[in-house]
Amino acid sequence: MTLSPHCSAARNSAEPTVPSPAPSAPGLRDFYEDPAVPVASGEARTLRQARMLAEALGPVSAGRPAATVLDVGCGDGSAAAIAARELNGHRVVGVDWSQGALLRAAPRLSQVVRGELTDGGLPFASGSADAVLFSEVVEHLVDPDSALDELHRVLRPGGHLMLSTPNLAAWYNRGLLLAGVQPVFSEVSLRHIHGRPGSQVVGHLRLYTARALREFVAACGFEVVKVAGAPFHGVPRPLRTLDRMACRLPSLASILLVHARKV
Length: 263
What we know:
CATH superfamily: Vaccinia Virus protein VP39
Number of strands: 7
Shape: globular
Order of helices and strands: HHEHEHEEHEHHEHE
CATH class: Alpha Beta
Strand order of the largest sheet: 3-2-1-4-5-7-6
Strand content: 15-25%
Number of helices: 8
Oligomer: single chain
Largest sheet: 7 strands, mixed
Radius of gyration: 21 Å
CATH topology: Rossmann fold
CATH architecture: 3-Layer(aba) Sandwich
């Protein structure tokens, strides 16, 4: 964010000099601007989510025009590009607040737009979108309620919300908590990982169980159609078969996928 310099009157030479304030510590925006920060849980989640949406939208045909799909929080556009291939014929628009992310996304997508979930909202008319992909975003938000309100606004009545987020109650997290270990996906610092497996800090502020996520989405004016599970690419290789099996019971899966419709 660029701040405009303030104009001030000339000082009397007898006045004491006031030192300039020290630069503020890097905030969340600076953290998320770093392209090295991981922004997605893996291609398996992206494919499952895109296929769920493709099934909900149906194919483009003479009687079914192309839908407008907003990928809100598209990052570098890699997940949106995979989704676009599954949503053959539908229009996918990448949306992010980060200019750096949009520059990286532009070569992968036919259209990218700068927009925010706060401070003025998304630059789309109310009811203008047929579907919203909201992948691996809600766990990073200070105010998820306002974000879901804004997504509800831009969706048409009956429009689709496809939301994904890590599962606090993933099968391995239940064991870790019993052992007194900080669960995977949770973070107590933006600088280092403390008290749990892993080494990458990704800036998670909120975590959901399947029950909490279902109740939260419903409270924001959506009807939950389906909750599904997806695996996490960060699971150690010897445990990946178990992780895929856990997806059969979404409440145990690594990643939660929610398909909801605007009421």
